[in-house]
Design brief:
By secondary structure, the protein is mostly helical. About 85% of the residues lie in helices and about 0% in strands.
């Protein structure tokens, strides 16, 4: 699936990115990251289309089962009409027709359940895939949100440590940006 490939590229981009010193953050090529995100967004409608195709296939299978059940019922009715010539034959015909109708109903029910189970499995797989993609996207966004405050905090801590080192050495502390020194 192309979505998996693009997500793999996103993961490789983040995994192979250059680390920011003194943090767990990395530097990522913004254009490359945005291009990959746009490609994943473009591919997701295809995944949604596949889910629609699965539903359409389910409808086709159900329609086929209904048609087969109708053919079996029509055949049972025809057989029942042919067997109505005498009372004994009529009784046997009714029993046979009821058996054929019951068999047809059971077969139609089985076909419908099989079609529903197949479609449910496909939709379940699709749902799991979408949840996995959503979790990956959420983790990526969370990493991006965490990166900015960590970098700011690391910079403030480094400035404070430099000032303490200068004070301990007897030097005047370096002015902070925005202060007159």
């Amino acid at each position: 699936m192309e979505v998996h490939e693009k997500l793999g590229e996103l993961a490789a981009l983040v995994s192979g990115a250059r680390a920011v010193p003194l943090s767990s953050s990395v530097v990522v090529d913004r254009e490359q990251l945005l291009r990959l995100v746009a490609e994943v967004r473009r591919l997701l409608p295809a995944e949604v289309q596949q889910a629609g195709d699965v539903l359409a296939q389910r409808d086709e299978v159900l329609e086929s089962a209904r048609s087969e059940a109708e053919r079996v019922l029509a055949r049972a009715r025809a057989e029942a009409e042919e067997l109505t010539e005498s009372q004994a034959v009529t009784r046997a015909a009714r029993e046979r027709a009821e058996h054929i109708v019951a068999t047809a109903r059971d077969e139609a029910k089985r076909l419908r359940l099989d079609a529903d189970a197949w479609c449910d499995g496909k939709l379940g797989d699709f749902e799991e895939e979408l949840e996995r993609l959503q979790q990956q996207a959420r983790r990526g966004r969370d990493r991006l949100k965490v990166r900015a405050p960590e970098q700011e905090e690391a910079g403030a801590q480094a400035r404070e440590e430099q000032g303490e080192a200068r004070a301990a050495a007897g030097a005047h502390p370096a002015p902070r940006p925005g202060q007159d020194g």
